[in-house]
Write a structure and sequence with these properties.
Layout: H1 6-24, H2 29-44, E1 49-57, E2 60-65, H3 71-77, E3 80-81, H4 87-95, E4 99-101, H5 114-119, E5 124-131, E6 137-145, H6 153-188, H7 193-198, E7 203-208, E8 213-217, H8 228-231, H9 236-239, H10 242-256, E9 262-270, E10 273-284, E11 296-303, H11 305-319, H12 329-346, E12 350-358, H13 360-367, H14 369-386, E13 392-397, E14 400-404, H15 412-429, E15 434-436, E16 439-441, E17 444-452, H16 459-475, E18 481-483, H17 486-507, E19 511-519, E20 525-536, E21 540-542, H18 544-553, H19 557-577, E22 586-590, H20 593-596, H21 601-612, E23 619-623, H22 625-630, H23 632-645, E24 648-654, H24 661-666, E25 671-674, H25 676-680, H26 686-702, E26 705-709, H27 714-720, E27 727-729, E28 737-738, H28 739-746
Length: 758
């Protein structure tokens, strides 16, 4: 399976769909192949890439499409014979193997064409043979680079996908050419049956009014039930099953009573195997000179098996998910629209269920897409076992599925009861683990349900409503079902508007870093935590909890992190310039799990710190326990690398999530932060301080420093002052400050009241 990120996956599906539509609509071969080249270049998205499709005629290759290659180069290599050492394309077409040349200037396969390639600045060429459905080589698909280049797995899988599309386009075009040539010959040979049969690869039978085979024309006996000698004189009733004979005799009788050509399609087990035929049947008068009164029919049968398979392949690619073979979004919307139409005509209700797997992403990221794909197929198998044949199960992509059950009732309550029962059955089924190759995996499922009750609604709207309800189920902790309510849609619309405004806010500089100081028990400022603030022009102050989740989903989190990092470095640079940067002073910067899945994090940190002249030791990377759960191995390796560079690592909200001592052993940490919920619980006496004491003891055992956050009362400060911790942070010590106000606390400006700390 082709594994790509969401953007590339969407581009690939759109490109594939556009190519298939162009082929299916009968566009000329040149435009179809040109589109294939342009689309693969667009997906690779590099100004250095060029592509070409060459067709093999005899033993020579000629360009059929190469929109980005120089015309002079194409002209120079067109018509060259294939063979070993004939460049990448000539060698691939000759050997039938994929040829990867990453450096034309050094590869012996290009010794005869090296100067030509260098003249046109071509330095790498990867060529794949294009094979027909019978596995013969019919051309080559080439990717050139304007620099030495070795393909990565994504390139190779992408080339494989577009090579198959090229084969489909070439074979479809050749089939149409054969049909066009055949039609032309038919017109020339009209009335001359013998000449007509001579040029046809098909089979023609003369059948009398009783169903007996009188004559057979055509050299390909694979298209016949038996040899011509065995067929002549035999009737349909003798040769075929009762049902088949009845069908064929009905066609014969219809043709005998008509003056037009009858067109039929059927499947028959002939000597060449099960084949699909397209038959043209017409009345033939006076065929036998000695019996001119006896009527006959000409039954002209053409083998269309390959064409039917190509049509099925096109339909499969256009309407079904390649991994699970389930209906995709396009086919689902067709069926959903039919359900909406029925609901309007009959004033009935139906429903749609939107399913999203809980915990799948963690397994997929940790164990790889191969295991993830196996798990998805196991999920589909389990879901199918719960559904009826008439129900539609569709995969939208990723770990999202939709069920459109085949049900309708006059009362909304009846539909709600039935679909709730189905959803409960699904939830029970997902409470059991999945076993793959001896390993057990658990994934839950969140279900959103939207009723179909209005013919004026749209398919997209119904899906969106169910999606909104599903996210509400996620917010409730997952593994539950939620019915859509209009209030949910209003909230969803507001969230979508907020997402749209995020990008504009970044551009217009509406985000600012605020800094909450951290103090030791003596009242000295030892650091700060950088906190993001969004000053919206109409909404006012938008809290991080209201926009950070959407920034993560939309990938804008990387831009927000870049802004925060730059502003943090600006503050540190000013402190350094004014010679007021205390020894060991650090500013903590929050890092989310999504950023650790993007390997640009380390590069961005290095580049920004170097630009501002800041040492890594002055930056503390603050992570949460969810990072350790979601990306254990990868995150540990990245943190070790960052810590080796000098960065400090702090674990935020320790004890509130999936706490495990093994995380503390495997992860390179410098600091634990006691969550504010534990700090607030200290008012409850000895029992209230037990967790705080345990965290401190654990941190001391591992050699970590300890920061208590969320300190909001003098009583909390007094209790914490008696414990072996490193520092305090909270509103009681100092609220978050703008960069300017924060700088003032370290450069002789306003300071917090000392008694608030000591």
């Amino acid at each position: 399976m082709l594994v790509v990120n969401a953007t590339r996956y969407a581009a690939l599906l759109e490109a594939q769909q556009s190519v298939i539509e162009k082929i299916a609509l009968g566009n000329d071969l040149s435009s179809c192949l040109d589109l294939i080249c342009r689309r693969i270049e667009a997906i690779i998205d590099s100004p250095l890439v060029r592509s070409s499709i060459m067709i093999l005629v005899g033993d020579t290759l000629s360009h059929a499409a190469a929109p980005s290659l120089p015309a002079s180069y194409c002209s120079a290599v067109d018509g060259l014979a294939i063979g070993q050492g004939m460049g990448s394309c000539g060698t691939a077409a000759y050997t039938g193997d994929q040829i990867i040349v990453s450096d034309i200037g050094r590869d012996p396969l290009w010794r005869n064409f090296r100067d030509l390639a260098m003249e046109h600045d071509l330095h790498a060429c990867w060529s794949t043979p294009i094979r027909a459905s019978d596995d013969t080589v019919i051309g080559s698909f080439g990717i050139y680079y304007l620099e030495p280049k070795q393909p990565d797995p994504f390139h190779l899988q992408l080339i494989d996908r577009f090579t198959r599309l090229s084969s489909l386009a070439i074979e479809t075009d050749r089939a149409r050419q054969r049909e066009a040539q055949l039609t032309h010959r038919l017109e020339q040979a009209k009335g001359k049956l013998e000449a007509f049969i001579e040029v046809m690869p098909d089979v023609a039978l003369i059948i009398d009014e009783c169903g007996a085979c009188v004559d057979i024309y055509g050299a390909d006996t694979h298209l016949l039930l038996r040899s011509p000698a065995e067929l002549k004189g035999q009737t349909m009733q003798h040769l075929l099953s009762a049902a088949q004979a009845e069908y064929f005799m009905k066609v014969v009788k219809t043709a005998l009573s008509s003056t037009g050509v009858q067109l039929h399609e059927y499947t028959l087990p002939v000597q060449g195997g099960d084949m699909v035929f397209e038959a043209r049947v017409v009345r033939l008068d006076g065929y036998l000179e000695d019996k001119p009164e006896v009527a006959h029919v000409l039954w002209l049968a053409r083998d269309i098996t390959a064409r039917k398979r190509a049509d099925e392949q096109i339909e499969q690619l256009a309407f079904y998910d390649p991994l699970t073979a389930l209906p995709n979004r396009r086919l689902l919307k067709d069926r959903l629209q039919s359900a909406l139409d029925r609901a309007g005509r009959h004033h009935e209700y139906s429903a749609l269920l939107f399913l999203d797997l809980d915990g799948f992403k963690r397994i997929n990221d940790a164990l790889g897409h191969a295991v993830g794909d196996q798990l998805l197929c196991a999920v589909v198998k389990r879901l199918k076992s719960l559904l009826r044949e008439a129900d539609t199960l569709s995969r939208l992509g990723g770990d999202e599925f939709i069920i459109l059950p085949d049900l309708s009732h006059r009362q909304a309550g009846e539909v709600a009861d039935e679909v709730a029962s189905l959803a409960s059955k699904i939830l029970r089924a997902f409470s059991k683990t999945f076993e793959l190759e001896g390993n057990l995996y658990h994934v839950g499922v969140s279900i959103g349900i939207s009723l179909i009750d209005d013919a004026h609604n749209t398919a997209d709207r119904i899906i969106q409503q169910a999606d909104t309800a599903m996210y509400e189920a996620k917010k409730l902790g997952g593994s539950c079902l939620v019915f859509f309510e209009p209030e949910l849609q209003t909230a969803a619309d507001e969230r979508m508007q907020l997402e749209r405004e995020l990008g504009l806010a970044i551009t217009e500089g509406q985000f600012q870093a605020y800094f909450q100081p951290q103090f030791d028990l003596a009242g000295s400022q030892i650091g700060a935590e950088a906190l993001i603030r969004w000053q919206h022009p109409t909404r006012g102050l938008v809290l991080p909890d209201d926009f950070i989740p959407f920034a993560v989903q939309s990938d804008l989190i990387h831009q927000l992190h870049g802004l925060m990092l730059t502003q943090v470095c600006d503050v540190l640079a000013q402190l350094k310039k004014r010679h007021v940067l205390p020894a060991g002073f650090t500013i903590a910067l929050n890092i989310c799990p999504r950023q650790f899945r993007d390997h640009r994090l380390q590069e961005e940190l290095e580049k920004t710190l170097e630009t501002h002249g800041i040492l890594p030791a002055q930056i503390k990377l603050e992570i949460t326990e969810s990072l350790m759960v979601d990306t254990l191995q990868d995150a540990a390796e990245q943190l070790s690398s960052l810590r080796a560079m000098g960065f400090k690592v702090s674990l935020d909200d320790f004890g509130t999530g999936y706490s495990s001592l093994s995380y503390l052993q495997h992860f390179p940490l410098d600091e634990l932060k006691i969550d504010k919920s534990f700090v607030h619980a200290m008012h409850g006496g000895a029992g209230g301080t037990a967790i705080v004491d345990a965290v401190i003891a654990l941190a001391n055992q591992f050699g970590f420093s300890v920061i208590a956050e969320g300190v909001e009362s003098m009583e909390q400060i007094q209790l914490l002052h008696k414990k072996p911790i490193t520092g305090l942070q909270g509103f009681q010590t100092c609220k978050p400050l703008s960069a300017e106000a924060f700088l003032a606390t370290l450069t002789g400006g306003t300071q917090p009241e000392p008694e608030a700390i000591e």
